[in-house]
């Protein structure tokens, strides 16, 4: 009898693993259990659907359920929720909308994702209060925005989602108030990026409330205000985007170990403490290439890559899931902001480094060439070894240049090596010294002192 | 008495070295001999001046002669041509417009640059026939184009200069005929890039004549035609851009060794066969990071970097000039094309590798996000070791992604390592798998077989 590979969760990690496994071994029985109806969708595209730049939610689906079933021969069961894992007996229990059944597996992948954190605010149940945790919610927001004549919005949380939704709602002519408890937005991007983004948000008429805690929402049936410490600010719609938490209950209950970050602990092949149980995607940890420690960065590429690697491993070609650098990029209206590795000195010290950092601003094109923009680059290195630790960039163009820094981190380059990289120059594309090189040059000088 | 550092040539390498040396050791006497009047100018910007996108030739000057003299305290002598080097006596002979004098040195930098090759065509002396070898020539072209009502242009050579000048002249409403002897334009970029660029040039109404040799120019005083094998094609202006050759006569005559490429041979510090004589920039070789062999890639970053390093070395901090990857990028109308390392299989075999290559096309942004473009990526690796050898990209946006490949080459990454790099993803900037990653993934699969 053919082996059975069971996957819990039908999004990036799960479907990548299922597809890859089936492609590598067509005889393998591959079953995917997805509790919802949407599979393999680009959650990152939801703000652009709300903004009106993506015609249909279906456009966000990379591969449809039908394609998985008919073309890839994956036994994809939507509306099937896994309610229990028994790793000793190697069986899961599935609830298919009322009826439950047991499903044995030879290999199991836990790809249960993450969920938007719902803070215990008063009034989160009011109509017009949303998180942006799935496709149906994105649909509901879009409907709420287009059906009504909304004047003001409250966005709670200045992370990716908050900033992308600020752009989306502003595009509908809504006055956006953005509330962030911390002193800065985009906390993982560091202060220099945050300050550039904050100035730009204000330019775009976003009302920015930093170090401001929201305690609840007001309204009869529908939200009409957001409650702060000492006042209530009117709001016709509220979006809560205060982060995500890995969906680990199922795994934890089954005795699958969690790691220090609270996500499922995995080894370099994505294996949990059970030999034939893997975890990948937003519910799982991966190793940070700079610290060598487990990290939890719930982003799409990590999920896709780990899923794909596990699909190879379970079909007989052990394939490491790869380290992560925590690389991320976000559009904030006209700006692009990106980060990789460690960008915060405090965090670098906690990881055992003696950080030295520089921030420079440089043009993205030759100074005399039209339409260039200023790019602000921060780089961090360790004083003793000169090893590059991380960096960030922010500007109206050129944010993808973070990839140079991310690649350097994967290669354990030191600052001198990065400084000597032969990057591409021509006036329409870069100054002679690319801004990344200029930053490395200045950092190199600082390390010598 | 203070030491004397003499620099021959006042452009990228020379002025970088002079400035850096003076900054590191203000007591050093730094003399720069420049035979022309322009110093530290961006030759790469000249086509954009002709096109009309740069207001004044002075905008192309990074730092003026006055700034070098007054602010940086460099003894910059324009209009002074070095006619002889005596490395045994450590003296040069300078012609300052009729009068000659001897100038002793402690350290000497030969930064004599490169010159546009002038093919022995009939009629190259006709009015309206130009190379684009210096600022005065760029000025003359611009004047010729704006003062006259030109209908057709002949551009001889499909390299950077030819393609950039095709764009510049087309912008003036001139019908451009581009003549290339080889089967493809942009030879160092490889065939896949060339084919995309050629299709685009034709879309832009450039008349492309591949495998077509020009034998001369016709006309009474002014050029009015270009002579091919069997016909004469009308041309109101002709630009010859068939490559550059390093200016090595001065060095060669003085007994300074040339390398296998015909440029001045140097060690990792930019030293020639004379301990205290350096060479840098377009006249000198540098080591190719992929082959480990001497290479001659006369581009601005290499010159700047080597000059700067030599400025440090002569002031007591020996600093390697850095390897080159041969990274280059060029704008061809709406396209960007870039290359790094080895992109040609034949060339890879000559360097002792067993090349495997892939070419893929992928979107620069998420498939559902507006305004993305197709990027065609070629990657080469060595079959036995999996080592990355080089690559190219071409598309309407995203050509700077070549920097990821260049960085990977400097880090001696193999294809699997590149494939696992955590590059930045968000819908407005990239698909989940950046096109570079997709190419690495496909190449990785091909290497496994």
Automatic annotation (TrEMBL), chains A, B:
Q: Does the keyword Flavoprotein apply?
A: yes
Annotated Pfam families: Pyr_redox_2, Pyr_redox_dim
List UniProt keywords, sorted A-Z. FAD, Flavoprotein, Oxidoreductase, Redox-active center
Q: Where is the FAD/NAD(P)-binding domain?
A: 5-300
State what protein this is by name. Answer: FAD-dependent oxidoreductase
The protein's superkingdom reads Archaea
Family to which the UniProt record says this protein belongs: Belongs to the class-III pyridine nucleotide-disulfide oxidoreductase family.
Query: Which GO MF term does the entry hold, naming one?
Result: oxidoreductase activity
Q: Which residues are in the Pyridine nucleotide-disulphide oxidoreductase dimerisation domain?
A: 330-432
Give the cofactors, semicolon-separated.
FAD
SUPFAM superfamilies per the record? Answer: FAD/NAD(P)-binding domain (SSF51905), FAD/NAD-linked reductases, dimerisation (C-terminal) domain (SSF55424)
Taxonomy of the source species: Archaea, Methanobacteriati, Methanobacteriota, Stenosarchaea group, Halobacteria
């Amino acid at each position: 009898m053919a082996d059975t590979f069971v996957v819990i969760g039908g999004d990036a990690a799960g479907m990548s693993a299922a597809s890859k496994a089936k492609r590598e071994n067509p005889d393998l029985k591959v079953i995917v259990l997805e509790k919802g109806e949407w599979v393999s969708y680009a959650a990152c595209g939801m703000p652009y659907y709300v903004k009106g730049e993506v015609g249909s939610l279906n456009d966000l689906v990379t591969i449809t359920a039908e394609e998985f079933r008919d073309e890839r021969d994956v036994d994809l069961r939507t509306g099937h929720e896994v309610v229990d894992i028994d790793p000793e007996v190697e069986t899961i229990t599935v609830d298919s909308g009322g009826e439950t059944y047991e499903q044995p597996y030879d290999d199991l992948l836990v790809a249960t994702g993450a969920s938007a954190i719902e803070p215990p605010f008063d009034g989160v149940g009011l109509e017009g209060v949303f998180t942006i945790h799935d496709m149906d919610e994105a649909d509901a927001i879009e409907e709420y925005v287009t059906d009504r004549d909304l004047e003001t919005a409250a966005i709670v949380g200045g992370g990716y989602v908050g900033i992308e939704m600020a752009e989306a709602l502003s595009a509908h002519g809504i006055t956006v108030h953005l509330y962030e408890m911390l002193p800065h937005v985009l906390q993982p991007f560091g202060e220099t990026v945050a300050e550039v983004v904050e100035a730009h948000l204000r330019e775009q008429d976003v009302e920015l409330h930093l170090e401001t805690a929201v305690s609840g929402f007001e309204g009869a049936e529908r939200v009409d205000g957001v409650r702060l410490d000492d006042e209530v600010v009117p709001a016709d719609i509220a979006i809560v985007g205060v982060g995500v938490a890995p969906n680990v209950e199922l795994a934890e209950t089954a005795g699958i170990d969690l790691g220090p970050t609270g996500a499922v602990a995995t080894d370099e092949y994505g294996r949990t403490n059970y030999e034939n149980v893997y975890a990948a995607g937003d519910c799982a940890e991966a190793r940070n290439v700079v610290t060598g420690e487990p990290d939890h960065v719930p982003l799409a590429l990590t999920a896709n890559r780990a899923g794909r690697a596990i699909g190879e491993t379970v079909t007989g070609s052990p394939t490491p899931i790869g380290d992560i650098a925590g690389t991320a990029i976000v559009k904030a209206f006209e700006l692009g902001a990106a980060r990789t590795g460690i960008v915060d000195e405090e965090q670098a010290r906690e990881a055992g480094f003696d950080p030295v950092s520089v921030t420079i601003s440089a043009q993205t094109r030759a100074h005399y060439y039209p339409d260039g923009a200023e790019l602000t680059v921060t780089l961090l290195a360790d004083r003793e070894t000169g090893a590059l630790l991380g960096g960030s960039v922010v500007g109206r163009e050129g944010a993808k240049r973070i990839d140079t820094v991310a690649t350097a981190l994967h290669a354990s380059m030191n600052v001198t090596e990065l400084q000597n990289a032969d990057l591409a120059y021509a006036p329409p594309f870069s100054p002679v010294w690319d801004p990344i090189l200029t930053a490395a040059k200045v950092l190199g000088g600082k390390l010598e002192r």
